[in-house]
Amino acid sequence: MRFVIAREPGSGRWLQLQLLHHLIGDHTTLEVMHAEVRAVLDGRAHELAAPQPFRNLVAQARLGLMPRRMKRSSRNNWPTSTSRPCRSG
């Protein structure tokens, strides 16, 4: 995840562009990341859990050790059908 921050000319407003990979762009992940960024900006970084290697998440998913809540959530968010064709390109 990357942020680009710039001051808007003439207004003094600060603007932020958030760049992230599509695999972490779901609503739940964004809420967690925004809460973590807010904690760091508020000086509460020490309250955050230690980061875990991504390989741990992959191993848990492959072994079927994902928390039940996450399994249910991801299963319910996949569309079973679509009412319009998907465009490619």
From TrEMBL:
InterPro entries, per this entry? CAT-like_dom_sf
Keywords of this protein's UniProt record, alphabetized? Plasmid
Residue ranges, annotated region (Disordered): 66-89
Provide ranges: composition bias, Polar residues: 75-89
Quote the protein name from its UniProt record. Condensation domain-containing protein
